[in-house]
Amino acid sequence: MKKFILLLSILSFLGCKNEQSENTTESLENEEKTKAREIAEAHGLENFEDVNEIKFTFNVRVGDSVRTSRNWTWTTKTDEIRLTEGDISRTYVQDDSIAEDEKELDQKFINDSYWLLFPFQLVWSDAEISEEKTAEAPISKEEMKSILVSYSSEGGYTPGDSYEIFYEDDLILKEWIYRSADGSRESPTTWEDYGEYNGLKIARSHKSPDGSFELFFSDIEVN
């Protein structure tokens, strides 16, 4: 789920019509980027540059049982990342030359940190972002604003995935629908139990419609 490029198709016309089409497309692209940035900034993006280290535990509960628990320490200035699972700790540096034996570790970190800081990925990653619309949120059934965030079918660990996010006037995410690239999986979850950590607004809980599944964060520290 790394770096993808927003592509807009433009029909070519002669003279003024061509110029008008290009200006319209440029305006639309700027509007979409602005909306993405507004959402990211509502979650504290402007404060991230002051962050040196983030610690968090990624947990998955199914029914009454916690199936997954991974503790992470991310030194943001150097991209040194440490994972602790049980009594085992591993450390790597996230760069352009990740060793083969570190790719599984990197994939876990990208997944877990993506849930933690997804609103910032609207700016950090080159996703294709749709125009804002009004739609019914999948869990609450309330009418909210919505945009679709789609990733390229090439590159990354899960190419072609998309996320339809739902928010209100405050631009804070309330719900989303994750859709796999092949359409075989669609998972709506909540964005709730927000906490503020040195200016970063983080949703600590994500629940399925019936509550039988919960992805949640604990031990969050932002330094």
Mean pLDDT: 86
User: Which second-level CATH architecture applies?
Assistant: Clam
Elements, N to C (H/E): HEEEEHEEEEEEEEE
Range of helix content: 10-25%
Major beta sheet, specifics?
A: 7 strands, antiparallel
Calculate the terminal CA-CA distance, rounded to whole Å: 25 Å
Structural class by secondary-structure content: alpha+beta
Q: How would you write the strand order of the largest sheet?
A: 4-3-2-1-13-12-11
pLDDT under 50 segments (min length 5)?
1-29
Question: What is the fold named in CATH at topology level?
Answer: outer membrane lipoprotein receptor (LolB), chain A
What radius of gyration results from the CA coordinates? 19 Å
Overall geometric form: globular
| Strand composition percent | 35-45%
CATH C-level class is Mainly Beta
Query: Number of folding domains?
Result: 1
Discrete helix count: 2
How many strand elements? 13
Walk me through this protein's architecture:
The radius of gyration is 19 Å and the shape is globular. By secondary structure, the chain is α+β, with helices and mostly antiparallel strands. It has helices at 15-42, 103-124; strands spanning 53-62, 65-75, 80-85, 88-93, 128-129, 133-136, 143-150, 162-167, 173-179, 186-190, 192-197, 200-207, 213-222. It has one domain (15-222): outer membrane lipoprotein receptor (LolB), chain A. The strands form 2 sheets. It has a 7-stranded antiparallel beta sheet, covered by helices on one side. Strands 5, 6, 7, 8, 9 and 10 form a 6-stranded antiparallel beta sheet that branches. It has 2 helices and 13 strands. Strand 8 and strand 9 (173-179) form a beta hairpin.
